[in-house]
Specification:
Number of strands: 8
Distance between the termini: 25 Å
Largest sheet: 8 strands, antiparallel
Oligomer: single chain
Strand content: 25-35%
Radius of gyration: 16 Å
DNA sequence: GCGTCGATGGCA
DNA sequence: GCCATCGACGCG
């Protein structure tokens, strides 16, 4: 079942947590690929210094100020595209960064890390503003939700003052596809204590 | 197994 | 001049 506008029109923190275990679907021509989302990050609005919208309404951030359920895609470090899902209602610039997923079916590709994920799904700036309630790129419910969801600090936002400490990253601790995780992967006992 | 670093482009 | 990154490399 395709996620409707109402799913996205909620706070990014709620959407980020609920997206773990859901299936991202991409249709390009007759080809369709699917992957299970295992890692997300919430960017919660203009007051969140790690959120691009903290710079206010610009040509780049405009889409984040719009209705939830649209894609926000941008290029970072001149190399990697990032796929975000706009959340909340018009005027409230919140978004969720999709950071990692597990390819489904016969599809073999590395979707660990937001750069790899965008490359695997062939997401580029031309997909910016794409409506996720349409048929080209959308998300559906997974068969089985993950038994647990862990929370940690967001990755790569050291510049954002106290916002870097907020636990706004959500992940499936049992997935091998989570980024920056194997290194410090806690024991099952520790992971349990992280559960959201 | 770990830290460091270079690539490269849009944006303010 | 800054980055919501990745992967290669060097050290040990």
């Amino acid at each position: 079942m395709k996620l409707a506008r109402s799913f996205y029109s909620r706070p990014a923190i709620t959407v980020a947590r609920e997206l773990i275990g859901k299936i991202l679907v991409r249709r390009v021509g007759t080809r369709e690929v699917r992957a299970r989302i295992v890692e997300t990050e919430a960017y919660v609005g203009e007051h969140d210094l790690a959120c691009h919208a903290a710079k206010g309404r610009t040509a780049r951030t405009e889409v984040m100020f719009g209705m939830g359920g649209h894609a926000y895609v941008y290029l970072i470090y001149g190399i990697h595209h990032m796929l975000n899902v706009v959340c909340s209602v018009e005027g409230d610039a919140q978004a969720v960064l999709i950071r990692a997923a597990e390819p489904l079916g016969e599809w073999r590709v590395n979707l660990t890390g937001p750069g790899n994920l965008a490359r695997g799904f062939q997401i580029s700036r031309s997909d910016n503003r794409l409506d996720l309630t349409g048929d080209a790129l959308f998300i559906i419910n997974g068969c089985t939700p993950p038994p647990r969801v862990a929370r940690t600090q967001r990755v790569g936002v050291d510049f954002s003052g106290h916002w870097k400490n907020r636990l706004l990253r959500f992940l499936d601790p049992d997935s091998p596809a989570v980024s920056h995780w194997k290194k410090s992967r806690p024991t099952k006992r520790e992971a349990k204590s992280h559960c959201a």
